Amino acid sequence: MATENVIIIGSACAGLTAAVYTARADLNPLVIEGYQAGGQLMLTSEVENYPGFPEGIMGPDLMALFRKQAEKFGARFLTEDVTKVDFSKRPFSVTVQEKEFSARSIIISTGASANLLGLKNESRLMGKGVSTCATCDGAFFKGVPVAVSGGGDSAVEEALFLTKFASEVFLIHRRDKLRASKIMQDRLFKNPKIKVLWDTITEDVLGEEAVTGLKLKNVKTQKNSQISCEGFFVAIGHTPNSHLFSSYLKLRENKYIETAPNSTKTSIDGVFAAGDVQDFVFRQAVTAAGSGCMAAIECEKYLEKIHQ
Ligand code: NAP
Q1: Tens digits of per-residue pLDDT, 206-231?
Q2: Ligand 1, from 116, 179, 184: best to mutate by most atoms within 8 Å of Cβ?
Q3: 3-class state of residue 146 by DSSP
Q4: Contact predicate 22/302, CB 8 Å
Q5: Model pTM score
Q6: Dist. CA 156 → ligand 1 center (Å)
Q7: CA of 38 relative to ligand 1 center, distance in Å
């Protein structure tokens, strides 16, 4: 089994940028892209805030361009999920089903997944009114009512952002107190377009081809109700896809991979983490791409050092 210079695990903005840079640096990277290649942008429609695309670009089209660019410079792709890693030995080992690969360095860019409520019609209507990103999809709901589920900073931020477009924004929260910071709450309560539905859970999303409303239940009174809305934004937190690495790498309390300040270095020399699997602050396509570039440069320096 030949030892790879670098294996990149995950293939969205961070991983594919790392692939472009490491391929151009002649490191012949192997990208294990996973079955959900392309990451969260594959779930969005139009991306209007990625620099260089003034007319906007569809999320999957942007990812296809990233991939094409990496392939052009010689990055190799394997469309399977990594099932196991072993970072306790060098070279490192990465297993895909029954096949084991070895590599001198690793770039982890497995991203994060938005938590969903697990409702019957939530996934079916994803991209047809159900969204996990107001920044990405909010502008599609001009002049119509929308709803947001959650009570943290993300939900409040999304609700406030959505008031720029929507006619009315319902914030649905399961308790009678928000988790969001005070300053965000103050802004929320001052905004006349937002109506908070306290002690309320969403029981299902209504609509055949697109979202038309929500089925709700008040957990205190047990009363059922329905609201009409065309957009439903689920903002109940994200889970970083770090589980596979948790027995080797230092994770933060919130399960994101810990990286050194201003760096993508993890707690193991030669293993780097980029994008949403380590960033719980910015979580943007462009910041993920930026950290993928950082990981590639740090990886190149690391390989130079161990070859000396
Ligand atoms: P979060 O703080 O964990 O809040 C998640 C919210 O979703 C909570 O209100 C929670 O309800 C609710 N929730 C969770 N599971 C639910 C379920 N199954 N059904 C209904 N509701 C559910 O997550 P976040 O808002 O994404 O924020 C994550 C971190 O990023 C936080 O540290 C936050 O401060 C930070 N952040 C900061 C900003 C900013 O400063 N501008 C913006 C975004 C995020 P309960 O309250 O009942 O638990």
Answers
A1: 999 999 999 999 999 999 999 999 99
A2: 179
A3: strand
A4: no
A5: 0.79
A6: 9
A7: 25
